[in-house]
Every structure is written in C-alpha cells, then in structure tokens.
Amino acid sequence: MKIDLEGRVALVTGGAVGLGAAIALALARAGADVGFTYFSHDAHLTELSLSETGRQFRSWRLDATDAASVSRVMQELIARFGKLDIVVNNAGGMIRRATLAEMDNDYWHAVVDLNLSSAFYCARAALPHLSDAGRMIFMSSLAAQNGGSIGQVGYATAKAGLLGMTRALAKELAPRGKQSTRSRPV
After folding, report:
1. Where does 9-183 sit in CATH, by number?
2. Considering 59, 141, 171, 178, which one is annotated as catalytic?
3. Is 155 considered catalytic here?
C-alpha cells in the first residue's frame, strides 16, 4: 500500500536519529516536505537522507521543553513551507535511570518536561496552523502501559500522561475537522 503525501508538510520533533529520523524519511519518501527538530544529536545524516528524496526539508535545533522556542520554530516552519499538515511529537527520552528514593524534584521535572510538556507545547503551537485535514501524532512507550523497568518511574509516568493527553485532544479536536468539512461547498 503506497501512501501519497504529495503537497503535505510535516514536522517531526526529535527527528535527527532513530525512530524520528526514520519517520521523517518515510514522510518525505511518501511525498511530504519535512521539517524536523533535534537537540542533542547531529542532524547531518537525516539531512543527507532527506536531500536524496528530492523533497524540501529544514531542520531546527530545538529545546522542546522551552515553550517560546517551540513557538519560534513553528513560526519559522510556517514562514518556510506556508502550512502544516502533520505533526509527529517524537522528542523525548529517559535521561537516566533513577529510583523514587534517588529522584529529586529537578530530575522529575526534567523527565516530565522532556516527555510530556514538550508534546503539549508543540501541539499548542501547531494548532492554529494545522490544516483542516491535519494530524497530530504522539509517540509514547510501552513503559506507559507496563511501568517500564526499575528506575523508570518518571519516564513511565510522563509517557502514560502522553497517552491521556492524546485521548483528550482527540476528543477536543475531532469536531474541528468535522465542522470544517461540513462548511465546505459540495
């Protein structure tokens, strides 16, 4: 089954390595122009792969835990591509293992900000620009369902929160697409 995303614009957070890079490349190969963000990893290999697709692309270094920076990148993406159709909230990570007894407030907030707040900031910044047929995708983890392993309390909790946010936003935003579809002339 071939997916045709010709004419669509996508943003992938955490798109320099691993799953994020693979998603960015798959979107481009399906015809989308792609923006992606990175923070602690080198973006060069993803840029090289995207350049071979013939699609337009742009990368931004982004601390996704900073709401103002997320808004700035969103504005730059819209200025560059003119629209937004797909948002893949992929930025995240475990940071390090820490048991409850070892976990201080700073670590807790860092893990929650990286894995949950970053997706909230991106969704909020994307919403005014997202096309009527647009899609927001939130990447979680099996740890959200099974609690992860020892030392993953913060990570598993944040990823479980991401699942709840995804469900809540689906309910909140689903009527938006239906209303705009009904308002179009047939």
Report:
1. 3.40.50.720
2. 141
3. yes
Marked catalytic residue, from 140, 149, 178, 183: 140
Distance from C-alpha of 29 to C-alpha of 6, rounded to nearest angstrom: 9
Q: Which of 40, 118, 159, 171 is catalytic?
A: 159
What is the pTM for the complete model shown? 0.91
Query: In angstroms, rounded to a whole number, what is the distance separating the alpha carbons of residues 72 and 185?
Result: 35
| Spatial distance between the Cα atoms of 46 and 50, rounded to a whole number of angstroms | 6
Q: What is the dihedral of CA 106, 107, 111, 114, to 10 degrees?
A: 50
Bridge partners of 59? Answer: 36
Question: Is 121 in the active site?
Answer: no
Q: What is the arithmetic mean of pLDDT over 154-159?
A: 98
Tell me the per-residue pLDDT of 78-91, one tens digit each, with 9 for 90 and over: 999 999 999 999 99
Residue 125 structure tokens: 């910044």
Q: Would you put residue 154 in left (φ > 0), alpha (ψ -120 to 50) or beta?
A: alpha
Mean pLDDT over the full length of the chain: 93
Could you say which of 49, 69, 155, 180 is catalytic? 155
Active site residue 107: no
All structural domains of the chain with their residue ranges: 9-183
Note if 117 is an active site residue: no
